[in-house]
Amino acid sequence: MIPAGVVTAARVTHESGGVDDLAAASPDSQRDGVDELLSVSGIEEAYVLSTCNRVEAYVVGSDAAVGRAALEEFFATVDDDAVIDTGHDESLRHLLSVAAGLESVVLGEDQIIGQVRTAYEDARDAGGIGEMLEAAVTKAIHVGERARTETEINEGVVSLGSAATTLAARNVSLEGATALVVGAGEMGRLTARSLVDTGVDEVVVANRTVSHAEHLATEIERDSSSDIGDETETETETDAIPLSALSTVASDADVVVAATGSDEPVLESHHLERASDDESGGTADETERVIVDLGQPRDVAPAAADLSDVTVYDLDDLESITRETREQRADAAREVESMVDHEYDLLCDQYKRARADEVIAAMYASAERMKQREVETALSRLEGEEFSAEQREVVEAMADALVNQLLAPPTKSLRDAAAEDDWSTINTALQLFDPDFSNTDGPFAPPINAGASTNTGAETGTGTGTGTGAHLEATDDD
């Protein structure tokens, strides 16, 4: 059954804040974030999604005020202008939109669905997933999968890695170039594959754990070789190095894409400085080089941008690429938005059915107690009479049939009332079966205000209160 509770959420994203805001919002890990939220009194469930473009936290509490207080503390180190708060209904709808790719820097990108799923597993391992968030997050994953299989939302540039490659290609020729990818995680893998597709001669992968870099280098070399088949083209060469060897490669790379999970910059200006052409004082090679920093926090030290032959781009600079992708996918996005609306309604119905079933179960439990008491009374009066076990079963079966027939119409009425958020009917039905029933607290308390969506940052919203909660409210990356 869906327990009593209200979903509240808050987030910092690439739209509401900058790289530094995202860095300040990021927990040490998603699981640590869930643990922190669950430690707050009154928080029953928690889910944290942390990528290079967003940090989002969802909680289930007894009321909206409890959730808002917990989230305010969770994002206490972030500028208030960068934090977006949402109430129950908007939080659920937003989660579905995120998984569908509608909120991503690259509209419809594929990586977010995997990140939503990983965050779900982390939250579940930390004990943060209860019945309310179980329904919400699994619904979000379902929507994300539908969006990508039933629409063209992910056609074209599908990740920040491919967007970074597209941006680099606008500044330097990638055919025959040497590319350095710093970071061997999912974003590094996507970037490396994208670079190989452009025809670079060499891809070097640098990573703190060299074995991970070697694994990625072997993987992309194998894939590029198999793509060539029997053609005469030369496959992309690959190599793997530790971060300590960056200076030996970074200075000669035409393109560098950095995507690590480091808390500090891993690429400094001295890694990129080129030595003189000869010992007599010749000038350094001034061939233009492009550095794309996908890290959050920053992977590239700001001083690197001062080098005369280096152009450094960060996440904010990918906007031109993502804007074009967004325009190309506008029709598909409208399809996905309709899909999200439909699945959101189904989620609301799922909550309502579960809530109605909880109320109906209480009604049947009350009726069952009455039935058992009256059956036992009747049978006790027949003691001393010849009364077989078979006859006892007949009496009990008759009592069961009467209860089921009597409760069938109110059961239907309660389910209809739940669908219409008609708490008055539900409350009246409960009191008919239990005159002492209290409607002021407990699992069948009347609707509460789940809290209007508020925005201390770049967006605004209002909670309409469509009764998606347990109370039948009337109201990418490394």
Automatic annotation (TrEMBL):
The molecular function terms in GO held by this entry are: glutamyl-tRNA reductase activity; NADP binding
Q: Where is the composition biased (Basic and acidic residues)?
A: 267-277
Q: What is its EC number?
A: 1.2.1.70
* Disordered, as annotated region: 262-285, 438-478
Gene Ontology BP annotations: protoporphyrinogen IX biosynthetic process from glutamate
Site label Important for activity, positions:
94
Positions the record marks as coiled coil are none
Ranges where the Glutamyl-tRNA reductase N-terminal domain occurs: 23-151
Where along this sequence does the record place binding of NADP(+)? 183-188
Q: Which residues form the Tetrapyrrole biosynthesis glutamyl-tRNA reductase dimerisation domain?
A: 335-434
- What segments bear the compositional bias annotation Low complexity? 450-459
Hey, which pathway is this one from? Porphyrin-containing compound metabolism; protoporphyrin-IX biosynthesis; 5-aminolevulinate from L-glutamyl-tRNA(Glu): step 1/2
Signal peptide location in the record?
Answer: none
Which reactions is this enzyme annotated as catalysing? (S)-4-amino-5-oxopentanoate + tRNA(Glu) + NADP(+) = L-glutamyl-tRNA(Glu) + NADPH + H(+)
Question: What keywords is this UniProt entry annotated with?
Answer: NADP, Oxidoreductase, Porphyrin biosynthesis
Family of the protein in this entry = Belongs to the glutamyl-tRNA reductase family.
Remarks, miscellaneous? During catalysis, the active site Cys acts as a nucleophile attacking the alpha-carbonyl group of tRNA-bound glutamate with the formation of a thioester intermediate between enzyme and glutamate, and the concomitant release of tRNA(Glu). The thioester intermediate is finally reduced by direct hydride transfer from NADPH, to form the product GSA.
How does this chain assemble? Homodimer.
Provide the function of this protein.
Catalyzes the NADPH-dependent reduction of glutamyl-tRNA(Glu) to glutamate 1-semialdehyde (GSA).
Task: Reproduce the free-text note on domains from the UniProt record.
Answer: Possesses an unusual extended V-shaped dimeric structure with each monomer consisting of three distinct domains arranged along a curved 'spinal' alpha-helix. The N-terminal catalytic domain specifically recognizes the glutamate moiety of the substrate. The second domain is the NADPH-binding domain, and the third C-terminal domain is responsible for dimerization.
Q: List the protein's name.
A: Glutamyl-tRNA reductase
